Write the structure tokens for this entry.
Amino acid sequence: SLDGKEGHRSVGHGGGHMTGFTSYFAHYRDDDLTVVVLTNAGHANPGQLARHVAGLFIPALASQPAKPIEDKDPEVTAMVRDLVARVAEGRLESKSFTTPMWVAVAAMKKQLQEESKLDGPLKSVELLARDESKGARSFRYRMTFANRTHVVSLTLNKEGKIAGLTAEEE
């Protein structure tokens, strides 16, 4: 992809594998800077990490955290809070998910529960983005825990079941 802020053009590409390995390559053409990120942390965002590293060298490249928007779907936010609690307690239920999403989540239940222990208690939830397309609703939240902050993306199908779910450390 071709990206960048004015005077700081960049070329980058990322990739990953379903086993949790992800990578990102960013070359900042105007700044003679290249950043390569390789990670085996499934929740990581190597593109964001690359921008953060680039920002350490050239402050103008540092990414700014997304600003919260008004939450007009408090019932979805409440569902997300409940989902976090269920992950921590190992009480996820198939009825909340589409069948394909449940297959993926069920295979990771123990891992998700272990990861949630590293987060600590949930401190705040902020809505960053909302979109609706063809009956599906997508939401992006910043979830601040005692020890880490995640950006969680959630897609609900027409029936209100979770059809997509990702989390990456902010």
Observations:
- The chain has a mean pLDDT of 88.
- The helical segments are 46-57, 74-89, 99-107, 109-119.
- Strands lie at 2-5, 8-16, 22-28, 33-39, 122-133, 136-145, 149-156, 162-169.
